[in-house]
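Teaching assistant here, posting this on the class forum so everyone can see the example we discussed in section. The complex has two components, and the goal was to see what a joint structure prediction looks like when all of them are supplied at once.
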Amino acid sequence: MNLDKMMDLPGAMAAFTYSDKGDLQAHVLREGTELTPQVLDLLAHSCVANLAIANMEARGWEAVTGQGGFQPLKGFSVVGLEWSVVVNGNCGVVVRNRDADYEAAFKALQAA
Amino acid sequence: MNIVKQLMAIPGVIAAGEFAFRGDRFSYEGALTDEFARMASILCRANTLAINMQTEIVDSFAEGCGCRPVQGWIAHGNLVTICAVGNYFAFVENRDELLNDVMTIMRAKVGDIRDDLLANLYSKIGGDTREALY
């Protein structure tokens, strides 16, 4: 996992990896950002939970409605006021909203 | 033109809608049945509330860090992506630049979500929303 490459995404403020349980494993923070390793650890835990919930919803939605295309889930993003966190698998990136390229972030996370 | 109609005018947007505070009041356009739109509204509202709770916790550790009030979320599926901003949602096909365009339009048209929307989402749970909201 090349976190420095993730930091090349437009508006990237932080990139991080986490365990299956959500514990922060490695991170890179852009200098001057308000984010801290503690915040990233909290975000990582919430991201694991959100990915699990979204997977469950995708599975349930396909089963109930018969519509396809939701599974496998390829990422989840929480859009905050100033920044968004985009995650997939065991890796995430925080991007500033005004510069965010969600598609590029999801693609980069899939490739990671 | 309302936001839902504007979203539906974009090629690749499968469905779009607006959900009300309890999730069981909704309007929508596109390839959903009434029942599926009701389910989508409840799903979107539940996710929005959960994420709002999470960002409140994050903010308590780093006040003013820029995560709250939460604006929305994106669930990126294999071929279809669901995105929600405020109390609007859209189902979009995974096409190049479509998700970015939809998010830009939703953020611009819905505007920044302030605490009052989410306060309402909380305060109305289980209450008589009909009288208060309609």
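For the discussion questions: The CA atoms of residues 74 and 107 of chain A lie 9 Å apart. The domain at 3-111 of chain A is CATH 3.30.450.30 (Beta-Lactamase). Think about how each of these relates to the inputs above.
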